[in-house]
From TrEMBL:
All residue ranges annotated as the Activator of Hsp90 ATPase homologue 1/2-like C-terminal domain in the record: 23-159
Organism the protein comes from: Mycolicibacterium parafortuitum
InterPro entries in UniProt: ASHA1/2-like_C (IPR013538), START-like_dom_sf (IPR023393)
Cited CDD domains: SRPBCC_CalC_Aha1-like
Phylogenetic classification of the source organism: Bacteria, Bacillati, Actinomycetota, Actinomycetes, Mycobacteriales
Protein name listed in UniProt: Activator of Hsp90 ATPase homologue 1/2-like C-terminal domain-containing protein
Length: 161
C-alpha cells in the first residue's frame, strides 16, 4: 500500500498523509495535472470522481463530483493557490452543491500536496489544514482518513496499468 503514514493533529488543526510510489515525480504530477487521470484516483473506489472543470494554475478552479454506489452525487471544488510543477501544488478544497457553489455548512481545508524523489520513486505528502479543531473533527467523523487513504492507495494500481 502506498500510504505509509497518517497523522492528525487537533492542536494544529492538520491532517497529514504520506505515501510512496514506485514512479518518478513527474509521473505522479501528471495524475493531478490531467483531469482524466485525476478521475481515476481522486475518490475512493466506491465513490469514483468525475472532473468537470480543471484549471490547475494559481487562481484556477477544479470542480468535481463523486458518485456513490446508490447513484448519489457529492460535489466539491479546489481553488488553486500555488503551483510548482512537478513538485506540488496548493489549493483550498471545499464541499459544494450540485452547481459547485461552496457549501457553507461544511469545512474548507487549505492543502499542500508535495512530490519529492525518494528511494527511486516518489514520496507524496498531502497536508490539509482546517480553520478550527471543530472543522477538522467534522471531517474526521465523516471518514476523511479512510476515504483519502483508499483513494491514494489506488494510485499504484493506476500507475502499473
Amino acid at each position: 500500500m502506498p500510504v505509509t503514514d497518517v497523522q492528525h493533529d487537533l492542536e494544529n488543526r492538520t491532517l497529514t498523509i504520506v505515501a510512496d510510489f514506485a514512479a518518478p515525480v513527474r509521473r505522479v504530477w501528471q495524475i493531478y495535472a490531467d483531469p482524466r487521470q485525476l478521475e481515476k484516483i481522486w475518490g475512493p473506489p466506491e465513490y469514483p470522481a468525475t472532473v468537470v472543470d480543471h484549471d490547475l494554475r494559481p487562481g484556477g478552479r477544479v470542480t468535481y463530483y463523486m458518485t456513490g454506489p446508490e447513484g448519489d452525487k457529492h460535489a466539491g471544488y479546489w481553488e488553486i493557490t500555488a503551483v510548482d510543477e512537478p513538485n506540488g501544488f496548493s489549493f483550498d478544497d471545499g464541499f459544494a452543491d450540485q452547481d459547485f457553489n461552496p457549501n457553507p455548512d461544511l469545512p474548507v481545508s487549505k492543502n499542500v500536496f508535495t512530490f519529492a524523489a525518494h528511494d527511486g520513486g516518489t514520496r507524496a505528502t498531502f497536508l490539509s489544514t482546517y480553520a478550527s479543531v471543530k472543522a477538522l473533527q467534522q471531517v474526521l467523523d465523516m471518514g476523511v482518513i479512510e476515504g483519502a487513504s483508499a483513494a491514494i492507495n489506488q494510485i499504484d494500481g493506476f500507475l502499473a496499468g
